[in-house]
Write a structure and sequence with these properties.
Strand order of the largest sheet: 1-9-8-7-6-2-3
Shape: globular
Helix content: 40-55%
Structural class: alpha/beta
Number of strands: 11
Distance between the termini: 113 Å
Largest sheet: 7 strands, mixed
Radius of gyration: 29 Å
Number of helices: 15
Length: about 425
């Protein structure tokens, strides 16, 4: 018998076992001693490597209210749940194809030449914020101008999104506190002096936070000025259909810019107009000069998205696509959408009437002239603080109120508070 093939003796087994235990203990002791000294270990006392971090302020907007779930959304979800062929596979980087196609048609129009000529690339993103961020990252990498002009004021997240994406943020005049309307002359002057090729952020409708929109004639003047200066429009469309009650009316500003053949970026959100806040459903469409450019742009958008979140979630986009491609469901959605918009318009009228009935000092017609979810009341921070303390009414310190949060029952109380705050200051 070959000695090399013999099994180890019992005494050799014991020696090997003891040696193995010794090595194991030595190794764990070495590892444990190194862990004890590490600042990230659990045995490092009460100190944290993050001890220097200060508490960030709470977001004053998030967490407000409970949005209505539309009947048509519940119907769409039920259809999806009952479809046993659906799986949980990853979407492509660009998202759900049907959703992208239908989203482009919704904002640009079903008969848009840009769509028919394949000059539009659309990618599904994480609601409006994600769509803005993907667009901004793309521009920071591939566009020759890295300056973006945003209206003053604008949605509080805009400056952060664009700055962190690598763009330089500047502002153009928009709101006129004296008239509580549009500072149109200031807007034209500021855009007219912007460097050629600069990016300009535009709110498609229901400007947030002011509720002040340009008229169609003013939009046309803005378009002509921007095209003459080579300025690149980047639309944020968060309220299509939710402002006027008409999907087409609320998309007019975007379609005017697309109709002239120039290039346009559009970020869309379905948070408000379908009530899909928590589903984070949005789209970024880039209208290009020709189909070849659009194809190359899409290839680069994929390179932006892949390391950011890889690909978007499927459920919310499936709800939207289900509603948009079914004629009956689409019609029901438009009716529910108009009902929501009309209710807000009624709340504006009721608040205006209540202030007028109380003889509240000042001209409050801006409440019914403004549009969309929000109204810039013109109240200052002291008046807002007074209303919070004395009437338990809470709003942002700049006097912005959400009209969607009002009802016929609460309007009189708000009107009393506004009247008392304004009269007290006189």
């Amino acid at each position: 018998m070959n000695m090399s093939q013999q099994s180890p003796s019992p005494s050799a087994d014991r020696r090997l076992s003891v040696l193995a235990r010794h090595l194991e203990l030595s190794s764990s002791a070495t590892v444990e001693s190194s862990i004890v000294a590490a600042p990230t270990s659990g045995n490092a006392g009460t100190n944290s490597v993050f001890s220097h971090i200060v508490r960030a302020p709470e977001d004053p907007i998030l967490g407000e209210g409970k949005p209505l779930v539309l009947n048509v959304v519940r119907q769409a979800e039920q259809l999806l749940v009952n479809d046993r062929s659906r799986v949980k596979e990853y979407l492509s980087i660009t998202g759900l194809a049907d959703f992208n196609k239908l989203s482009a048609k919704l904002i640009l129009g079903a008969d848009s030449p840009a769509i028919q000529e394949n000059r539009v690339t659309t990618v599904q993103c994480l609601s409006g914020t994600g769509s803005l961020r993907v667009g901004a990252e793309f521009l920071a990498r591939h566009y020759h101008q890295r300056t973006i002009y945003i209206p003053q004021p604008t949605w509080g997240n805009h400056p952060k999104v664009f700055t962190l994406a690598g763009l330089s943020v500047k502002s153009y005049r928009y709101y006129d506190p004296a008239t509580r309307g549009l500072n149109f002359q200031g807007l034209l002057e500021d855009l007219g002096s912007a460097p050629s090729g600069a990016i300009v952020l535009l709110h498609a409708c229901a400007h947030n936070p002011t509720g002040v929109d340009p008229t169609i004639d003013q939009w046309e003047q803005i378009r002509r000025l921007m095209r003459s200066r080579g300025l690149l429009p980047f639309f944020d469309s968060a309220y299509q259909g939710f402002a006027s009650g008409s999907l087409d009316t609320d998309a007019q500003s975007v379609r005017m810019f697309v109709a002239d053949g120039g290039e346009v970026l559009v970020a869309q959100s379905y948070a408000k107009n379908m009530g899909l806040y928590g589903e984070r459903v949005g789209a970024l469409s880039i209208v290009c000069r020709n189909a070849d450019v659009a194809s190359r742009v899409e290839s680069q958008l994929k390179l932006v998205i892949r390391p950011m979140y890889s690909n978007p979630p499927i459920h919310g986009a499936s709800i939207v696509a289900t509603i948009l491609k079914d004629r009956n469901m689409y019609r029901e959605w438009t009716l529910e959408l108009k009902a929501m918009a009309d209710r807000i318009i009624r709340m504006r009228q009721q608040l205006f009437d209540a202030l007028r009935a109380r003889g509240t000092p000042g001209d409050w017609s801006h409440i019914i002239k403004q549009i969309g979810m929000f109204t810039f009341t013109g109240l200052n921070s002291e008046q807002v603080a007074f209303m919070t303390k004395e009437y338990h009414i809470y709003m942002t310190s700049d006097g912005r109120i959400s009209m969607a949060g009002l009802s016929s029952r609460t309007v009189p109380h708000l009107a009393d508070a506004i009247h008392a705050a304004v009269a007290r200051a006189r």
